[in-house]
Structures are given as structure tokens and as C-alpha cells.
């Protein structure tokens, strides 16, 4: 029954997309894909009985069914704002054929690419995985932190290029640079959102079905590249194909595990309701994420207060293999009503961004790869922190570019100035 209700809610989202002509290559389609992944994967493990004693909640059929009901309500609340208020708007750029400005921006971005490439080779995600594999330790601080911020700077420079010029051949060259960084680094989180954003922007200018099909092919290749990247650094005796597709199932089950834990603590955790955040984690926690990792940040985090409150009821550490599904934080905020309430707000925000993308073009381009695409799979406070960092870096790249243009502009002769001045005698 639960799976039927969930699938009906999924069909409702597809029906809304058809009625309002919402492209599936959009934040709407990405949300739908994540909903299927994070709900069907744990349900399948329970149905097939392939849970493991290490993660006891994966075999709980009742728990999986309750999550399906809550996710079905979330799907309905996500689709309603699009059904009522959605209006597709195509991104527009002011005419700009200043090749000199593009060249200046290239010489700003290319050194960032080289430095980022060198740093991820020595201090990238691949190295972090190697150092922490098989242990409960994490690697943070020092050069790994610098590398992380350098990746954000490199991404921000690309986002500024898109904001300034849109997608062209040079932007394609920059995407190739990001692919190289991803393959060396082993992490997909920075590449896949900007690759999808690029496809969305290119789709805004697509005038025929043939070009739209090409965009779907490009999106599929981008996702496949991200899977291959992870497979390249995985050890073990599994075949390459198994390494490519195993992360999908692992992401679906272990990424969702925090949501199962939050839900289980409400159903079986006694007075866990005393620790509900009542939505304050969405308002206060983004500030706390700018504090150093440790007790100071945890003391200011409402969501961490929830985790600490339910920990005595958990059989495993919270989110034992990492990963995240937004339903965990939504449930911590408003109990069973959380997924519906939070998803309704998210849907309204996406509709507003779509209708105002040209009015707030830089905000749209900066927020889509973070808040727009990663909302489903990231803790909200951390996601807002990443968005603010990237937005400030975009502004920094813009400032550097403007200064570079100012100092490389050749002074015009008095004759040129005279010819360029308006003739007030006419």
C-alpha cells in the first residue's frame, strides 16, 4: 500500500511536469530523481531482505513504509506550487562580444585551474578517503581545507563566466578543466551540480527537439563520468561495472539512513519530541556552520541538539556512513509533518527563482548548484554556508576581472576622445 501511494505521488509530479511543461532537466527533475533514489533503495533492501546486522534499520519494513507515506506527502506539496505558480522563463544575457574581456578572464581562471589541479592531486578527496578508510577518523584542517576552498574558488570563477557570457565554446573548455580536476580529485560534489547547471542554461536556448536530446545525452554522460570517477578509486575485488553502479545503491540506502534514524527515534524513542528544532535549524544553523568544528559549533546548532537528544535511542552512530537526506532534518523540525512543510517551502522558492531568474541572474546562477540541486542531500546549514562562500567568491572574481580590465585598458588619444564625444551642436 505504501509503495503504491508513493508511486501515485510520483505520477502526480510527472503529470504536473507535463501540464506546466516543466523540463525534467531542471531542479524539478533532479528533486524527483533524488526522491526515487532515497525512498526506493531502502524499501527494496527491506523487501528483498538484504539488510545487514551492521545497519539494523535497513531491514525494517514498517519504517520503510512510513517513510514512503511521508515522502508521498512531500511529493504532493512539492508539485502544488509548480502546478499553481510555475512559469518557465528563459535566461537572457545582455549582448557582449568583448573578446578582450574573455581573454582577461581566461588568464584569471587558468592559474586557478593549475593550482587547484596540483592541490587535489596531493590533498584531494582521494587522499582523504585513503587516510580514513577503515577508521572512524576524519581529515580536516591545514592543506585539505585550503584545497577545499580552492575548489570553491575554481567553481566560482566558472559560475562568474556563465553569469557574464552564458554558455559558449570557451565555457565548454572550462568544463573540460573541471572534468580533469574531478578525475584527479575523485570527488563529484563540485562537478556534477555545475555540469547540470550548464545543461539547464544550454537548454534555455534550445530551439528544437534534436538539440534537447543532445542535452539529455550530455547530462547522462556527466552523471556517468561522476560514477566512473568514484569507481576509479575504489579497491576490492568487484568488477569495474559493479564499482560504477554500487555507489548508487549505497548512496540511496546510507544517504537515507539518517532519515530512517530520525523517524525511528520519533516512533520508538520515548521523549525525543522534546528535542524538535521547530524549524530553527533552518534559521540559526547556517550561522553556526561558520564557527570552527567542535563543541562551539555544536552548542549553537539546533539540528545537532536534535541528534544529541536521539542518540541514546540509536543502535548505530547517527548517519554512520555519511551521506544525508533532507527528510532527516525536516522530521527533526516538525515530526511527521516535517517533510510536507519543508518541501512546500522548497518548491515555492524554486518557483520564485524560476520566475525571477533574469531579475536576479547572479543569485540564480550561484544558488542553483548549491541550494537548488543539493538541498535534498545536504544539511541545510552547511549548504547555506557553501552557497555564501561561492557567492562571495563570484563577487571577488568579478572585482578582480574589473580591476584587470581597468589596468589593461589603453588610454585613448585626444583625437579618439574628441571623435567619441557627442556633438552638442547638432
Coarse structural class: mainly alpha
Q: What profile does the largest beta sheet have?
A: none
- Strand share of the residues? under 5%
The quaternary structure here is: single chain
Low-confidence segments = 130-138, 415-426
Overall body shape: globular
Query: What share of residues is helical?
Result: over 70%
Number of helices: 20
Write down the secondary-structure element order.
HHHHHHHHHHHHHHHHHHHH
Rounded Rg: 23 Å
Number of strands: 0
Distance between the first and last residues' Cα: 80 Å
Average pLDDT over all residues: 82
Describe this structure in words.
- α2 (27-48) crosses α10.
- This protein has 20 helices and no strands.
- Mean pLDDT is 82; it is low at 130-138 and 415-426.
- It starts with a helix and ends in a 6-residue tail after the last helix.
- With 426 residues, the protein is an all-alpha fold.
Comma- or semicolon-separated keywords:
mainly alpha, 20 helices, 426 residues
Q: Any chance you could write out the topology, listing elements then pairs?
A:
Blueprint (H helix, E strand, L loop, with lengths): L1 H19 L6 H22 L12 H25 L13 H25 L1 H8 L9 H24 L3 H17 L5 H14 L4 H25 L6 H15 L2 H12 L11 H4 L1 H4 L6 H6 L1 H9 L16 H8 L3 H18 L5 H14 L5 H29 L5 H7 L6
Helix pairs in contact: 1-2, 1-3, 2-3, 2-10, 3-11, 3-17, 4-5, 4-6, 4-7, 4-19, 6-7, 6-18, 6-19, 8-9, 8-18, 9-10, 11-16, 16-17, 18-19
Amino acid at each position: 500500500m505504501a509503495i503504491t501511494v508513493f508511486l501515485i505521488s510520483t505520477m502526480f509530479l510527472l503529470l504536473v511536469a507535463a501540464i506546466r511543461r516543466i523540463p525534467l532537466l531542471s531542479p524539478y527533475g533532479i528533486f524527483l530523481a533524488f526522491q526515487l533514489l532515497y525512498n526506493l533503495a531502502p524499501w527494496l533492501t527491506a523487501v528483498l531482505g538484504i539488510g545487514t546486522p551492521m545497519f539494523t534499520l535497513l531491514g525494517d519494513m514498517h519504517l520503510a513504509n512510513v517513510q514512503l507515506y511521508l515522502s508521498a506527502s512531500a511529493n504532493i506539496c512539492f508539485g502544488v506550487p509548480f502546478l499553481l505558480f510555475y512559469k518557465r522563463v528563459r535566461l537572457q544575457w545582455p549582448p557582449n562580444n568583448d573578446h578582450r574581456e574573455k581573454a582577461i578572464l581566461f588568464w584569471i581562471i587558468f592559474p586557478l585551474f593549475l593550482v587547484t589541479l596540483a592541490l587535489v592531486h596531493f590533498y584531494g578527496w582521494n587522499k582523504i578517503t585513503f587516510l580514513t578508510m577503515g577508521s572512524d577518523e576524519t581529515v580536516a584542517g591545514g592543506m585539505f581545507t585550503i584545497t577545499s576552498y580552492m575548489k570553491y574558488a575554481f567553481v566560482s570563477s566558472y559560475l562568474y563566466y556563465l553569469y557574464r557570457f552564458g554558455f559558449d565554446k570557451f565555457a565548454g573548455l572550462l568544463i573540460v578543466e573541471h572534468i580533469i580536476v574531478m578525475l584527479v580529485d575523485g570527488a563529484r560534489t563540485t562537478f556534477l551540480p555545475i555540469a547540470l547547471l550548464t545543461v539547464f542554461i544550454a537548454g534555455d536556448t534550445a530551439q528544437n527537439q534534436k538539440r534537447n536530446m543532445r542535452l539529455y545525452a550530455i547530462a547522462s554522460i556527466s552523471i556517468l563520468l561522476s560514477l566512473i570517477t568514484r569507481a576509479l578509486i575504489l579497491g576490492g575485488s568487484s568488477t569495474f561495472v559493479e564499482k560504477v553502479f554500487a555507489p548508487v545503491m549505497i548512496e540511496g540506502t546510507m544517504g537515507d539512513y539518517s532519515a530512517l534514524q530520525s523517524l525511528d527515534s520519533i516512533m520508538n524513542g520515548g521523549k525525543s519530541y522534546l528535542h524538535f528544532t521547530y524549524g530553527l535549524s533552518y534559521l540559526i544553523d547556517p550561522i553556526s556552520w561558520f564557527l570552527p568544528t567542535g563543541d562551539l559549533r555544536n552548542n549553537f546548532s539546533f539540528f545537532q541538539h536534535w541528534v544529541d537528544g536521539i542518540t541514546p535511542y540509536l543502535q548505530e552512530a547517527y548517519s554512520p556512513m555519511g551521506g544525508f537526506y533532507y527528510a532527516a532534518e525536516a522530521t527533526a523540525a516538525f515530526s511527521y509533518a516535517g517533510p510536507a512543510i519543508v518541501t512546500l517551502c522548497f518548491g515555492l522558492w524554486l518557483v520564485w527563482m524560476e520566475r525571477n531568474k533574469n531579475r536576479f541572474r547572479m543569485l540564480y546562477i550561484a544558488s542553483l548548484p548549491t541550494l537548488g540541486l543539493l538541498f535534498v542531500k545536504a544539511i541545510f546549514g552547511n549548504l547555506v554556508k557553501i552557497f555564501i562562500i561561492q557567492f562571495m567568491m563570484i563577487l571577488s572574481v568579478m572585482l578582480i576581472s574589473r580591476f584587470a580590465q581597468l589596468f589593461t585598458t589603453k588610454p585613448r588619444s585626444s583625437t579618439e576622445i574628441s571623435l567619441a564625444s557627442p556633438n552638442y551642436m547638432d
